[in-house]
Design brief:
This protein is an alpha+beta fold. The chain has helices spanning 2-19, 163-178; strands at 35-39, 47-53, 63-68, 72-76, 84-90, 96-98, 101-103, 136-138, 156-158. It is elongated.
Length: 179
Amino acid sequence: MFATLFSVTLFVALAIQGVFADFTVDTPSLTQCGNAQITWTASSPPYNLLVVPADDPCDEALVDLGQLSGLSYQWNVALAAGTAVVLFIEDSQENEAWSGTMTVGASNDSSCLTSTTPTTPANPALANPATAPKSTTTTYSPVGAANAGLAPSGALSIRPLSALTSVGSGLLALFALAL
């Protein structure tokens, strides 16, 4: 009886470990035309980093920051104040992580903005940087079941089961049933 309980517990622990990965991306503070340091945990490089709209993260990316090999990126935030965004990062093994929602804070600097700068719907309060809200971040809600894993930092994380984890879990299940 104890051996069966131990085997089932080990099987469940391996399955959970494969699903709830440690691949995360931080949720930095963003300021219009300011610099933001984006960092993430190690996984399988290269990493593809995107900035997506918070109200529709499955829509096209607002900014594609490209394929990166390191664990951080210095980004010049060329987004208008009030734009709500989420960071999405994917590694070479298709593991993905999502940041929390970030709203770009106001700044007197508009040198990075162009007529094609992506924005969310205009907010009249943002016309005057003195009265505009500061950069804000919030915990992000999962987008569908594929992103239901929460990492300890509050960022979203998902990792598909590896072949080794799947085979090992299957063998443990067979072993548990044989007892």
